[in-house]
Every structure is written in C-alpha cells, then in structure tokens.
Amino acid sequence: MQKRQAGTAGSPGDRRIGLVLPGGGARAAYQVGVLKAVAEILPRRSANPFHVISGTSAGAISSAVIASQARVFRHAVADLERVWGHFRSSHVFRSDALTMLRSSTHWAAALVFGGLGVANPRSLLDNAPLRDLLSRAINFNAIQESIDRGYLGAVAITAAGYGSARSVSFYQGGAGHEPWDRVRRIGRQEAITLDHLMASIAVPMMFPPVLLNNEYFGDGAMRQATPLSPAVHLGADRLLVIGVRDEEQDPAPGPGEAIPYPSLGRIAGYVLDALFMDGLSQDLERLTRINQILECQPRNTIDTDSARLRFIDAMIMLPSRDIREIAMRYVHEMPRPVRLLMRGLGALNYGGRQLVSYLLFEQGYTRELIRLGYGDTMARREEVRAFMEGAPVDSPCGIIGWRDLSEQYSQRVRALQIPGLS
Prior knowledge:
Blueprint: H1 12-15, E1 17-21, H2 29-41, E2 52-56, H3 58-68, H4 73-84, H5 89-92, H6 97-112, H7 128-137, H8 141-148, E3 154-161, E4 167-173, E5 180-182, E6 185-189, H9 194-200, E7 210-212, E8 215-219, H10 229-233, E9 238-242, H11 264-294, E10 301-303, E11 308-310, E12 313-317, H12 323-328, H13 336-344, H14 353-359, H15 363-378, H16 381-388, E13 399-400, H17 406-409, E14 416-417
Parallel strand pairs: 1-2, 1-9, 2-3, 4-6, 9-12, 12-13, 13-14
Antiparallel strand pairs: 3-4, 3-8, 5-6, 7-8, 10-11
Helix pairs in contact: 2-4, 2-15, 3-4, 11-14
C-alpha cells in the first residue's frame, strides 16, 4: 500500500484544515468546549487554524463568530464561551407565560377551525431574541476582512430550501472557489449575513423559516445528507469534526414488562435526533469507503468527469458521556411556561429527555457541556496537537476517533481507530 504524505506544518493556509460543526441545538455548547481546548493547545496568539469553516444550524453560529474574529482564535472562542456560558431560554426564544399562552392558543385555534388563512401560526416558538443577540454579537462585515488578510480561506453556512427542496451551502471565500451542483445540494457564493444564520437554525415547526433570494429556508440539517462536503469542496484536505452525540441505546424492556407508548415529546426528540445526527454518521461511513478505495490508487486520488476524489484525513470529537443524562439534571432551570409545554408533550420523563437535550438553552446545562467538551479534548491533547500540526494519520482510512456505531461498523471495516476497542 502506498504511504500517504504528512500534512504540511506551517500556516493555517498551508495545512488546509477544515472545521465541521454540525447542528445540535443547545448541545452545540459541547463544540464550544472542544474549541476552547484547541485554542489552549495552540500557541497563545495563534490566528484561526482552520482554512475552511463549515457550520449548520447551531454550528453555523460558532462558524460565523470564528470567521469574524479569525485574527486571534483564542479571542473568538472566548466570545463564544461568554455567550454560551450565560445562555437563558429567553435569549433564544420568547419564553414568558403570556407569549407561550398566545402561541398555544393560536395553534389550537388553527387546528380546531381548519386553519386561519393568512393568520396561520408560522412556528411554535418566536426566536426574535436570538436574532437580536446575534446582530449585536457578530460583525458580519469582518468576515471578508478575515478572508482578505489570509486568516481564513472560506466559511460556509448551510440551509434547506423549502421551494427548491435542496440543501444550499452559502459560502464566502477568496478567489478560486467555484460553486458546485450535486443531487439535492448546491454551493452558492454569497456574503454571509444574519439572515443566513437565522435560516440555518430555523428548526422546522419550532422556529419560523427565513426568506432568502425569493425562497424560504429552514434548518440546514434537513437536507444535508453530506455535512462534510462543503468543507471538502472549499479546499480542506483534513477535517476536524465536532459531533454532539455519543449515547447508549435505552435498555430493552424486561420479560413481561410493558412497552410504553412513545409520547409526542419522545417522537419529537427522535425527529430532531435524526435531523441533526444521521447525516453525519452516513457521511463518515461514505468518507471511510472513499478513503479505502483511494488508498489503493496512485497519489491517493481519482479524477472523474465532474471532480477529483482525494484522500481526506478526519479527526472526530464526540462526547464521552450521554448528553441526555446531563440534560435531565438541569430541566428545573427551564422557565416554568416552557416546562409546562414540555410536560404537555411528555418530554420531562425518561423517554422525552432527547427533546429536552436539544432545547435546554440554560446556563447550568450549557456550562457543563462546555466543560465536557474541554475535558474530552484535553484528554486527547497530544493527538489533537499532532492532527492540527499536520502529522500523518496512522489509522487505516485516515479516520480517528469515530465511536458512533462503532461496535457494528468497526467489525466490518478496518477503518476506525476507536479508544478502548481493539
């Protein structure tokens, strides 16, 4: 087998590392903890080390913050930690009793009367407070300055078009980046704005869609079957991917034990979990397969009519603990009207904890997730440092740390370097 070459140490542009931040609602606080540790592992005044940053849903927020403050990476991460570490639900959506009552009544009336015409409700929650927060926290004009000064190659924000039924990765970058057009997904060059972020985080039914270029867009995870793709299209040759799920399956009922009927809360949590997480698992499997093929090719590349396939190293960071269990310890921090809504959906019991883990925008919870992400990364400090410096990835197929689906998948494909498994 041909030996692959090490990445090039030096400036961030030389290494061409891509940062991939998938969605995950409140769970995205874990990503902030990982980035905090990365900032401490790097030299203190380091610029942004990522040539490409690609974010979806809540991950899009962190992507835009880093892109706008790319000159000093540690400062950007400190701002992220300050925001995520002081979150309240009221910073994300209107959670007062009157608003929640009006929303519930509005939806009930629409259902009872078969619709209210132009007065139909647009979403369950009003996320206007988040728009106000982001407008104050992010200087979108500074993104182009980061690109012009060489601190960033490109940033991509992905949203799903309701009209075109396509996943659209809006990207802003320097010269040389070409738009792409694949089945159900395209790359479109545009200056990133607040509307792009609000579109990417517009969880269906929960938050209202956003109008962009004569089309309404919603949460980018909805159609994003290939969350690694935007970073690769924009030139990354190795990827740091920060996921937000690594949990055990619920225990099976014992003999003779009744199987509880799934509540609306459990079903809604299941839907969000599939929305945010399934695409990443499938794309990692796809990357593994492609890398396996490319290992047998000269120069680890294959030229096709539409593109060049190239070997992509990847390091995956996933939580070492079940985030659902953490969420249940902080449910009491939710505003009372929100807790009542969650209770009505059946989301405050064991089966509904999935939904709570995505919607619990409260500082006790987000701070613990930041600590978890930081601790997980510092436990792999030397491994992370080597990856960021461009050291060769010894693991077959170039994938480090993917524990998701490991028991069934790693037995079939010799691709994964998984801590604790041999």
